[in-house]
Amino acid sequence: MLTNTSSQMQQHVTQCINCGQCNLVCPTHIAGIFNPLGVLRDLQMHDPETAIANQPIYNCLTCNRCMTFCPASKNGVGMNIAMLIRYLRAYAIENQLKSPEKNEFPGSCTTLAKNSEKSDSIPTVDSLQYFKNTPKLKIAQKGEIAYFIGNLAGLEDLNKDLGLNLSEIPQSVVGILNRVNISPVVLNMKDSGHDDLWAGNIATFRKIAQTNVDLYKKAGVTTVIVEGAEAYRTWKFDYPKAVKSFGLKVYHLSEYLLNENLVKKLVFDNSFTATYAFQDSSRLGRLGGNHYEEPRSILGKIPGNTLIELESAQTSAFDYAGGLYIVENSTTEEMWKQRLHEVQDTGVQYFITTSPKAIVQYSKFDSDIPIKDWAVFLSRFLK
């Protein structure tokens, strides 16, 4: 269960050898707004209260890029800055402590629910809205295989000025599943709770997780398919720790298609081609079971399409991740712009991601290269 934050923090702090490698590769340290080694030293020399008072822990992206290069971390075992920061945030909430530089409200890339003792106050997401005028797309209310959408409508609503069309994502996913003869269960549910968990709102997260799992079990669901990276990480790794007798199988869409040998049922249109770069999400990669090859493998089956890898890719990829309350200024804007420059330098036509939040984040900046969701991009090549 998600408990005992003090002992959980200590498990990671004792692993640190103070080499400073984390600072060298941390995007927000380079931007001058966060110091991972400073957090560790405060925890080694003082206590969590001191670390929270001294360090802007909400400026950490919890992307764990630092752990790719940390000698005390290997394949997610040992040192883990992202988890340490999550525990610190939970400790801050438990003890009503304030951290410097934390924004009063969460940013535009989150649908963070208000922390409440009443689970019915956490909004239910209208997932069925995406299929009211799409008679060709087949969904179900009961069955063994479900597709979890999350709160795309909330992200869209918070970012109206960007003109996003996130409804493309669930419609594309269902279209892909229909092509392999699956009519997935789609229900109106709570958001995944990812943002509440990474903000430290453990009680709220547990309520969300329990509600969602109960809804699926009542509908007869045994397998959950997720395409959004943040929701995938949450269902796959965090729900089983929060919900007793979880008992559901969870797959990323790309993982499921490959594992079940269903890609052969997809017929591709080879009349046009494209070049693309891929944005690895830490929630699907470093913190999500290292699913780097699955989405690439399926896109690689599209005739004539070419993937051009970014310099910062896979285990070392720069990622928006869980920047829930991160300070937004010219310095952090430059962080995102540099990533877009890296994409533009490749000369690709599209920038592909499995993270809806990455779509929001990068859509804030002018770019000649559109950022597209993985399933949306894939579906455009299907006959």
From TrEMBL:
Alphabetic keyword roster: 4Fe-4S, Iron, Iron-sulfur, Metal-binding, Oxidoreductase
Domain 4Fe-4S ferredoxin-type, chain residue ranges per copy: 7-36
Enzyme Commission number(s) from the entry: 1.8.98.1
Gene3D superfamilies: Alpha-helical ferredoxin (1.10.1060.10)
An annotated Gene Ontology molecular function: CoB--CoM heterodisulfide reductase activity
Family: Belongs to the HdrC family.
The protein's name in its UniProt record: Dihydromethanophenazine:CoB--CoM heterodisulfide reductase subunit D
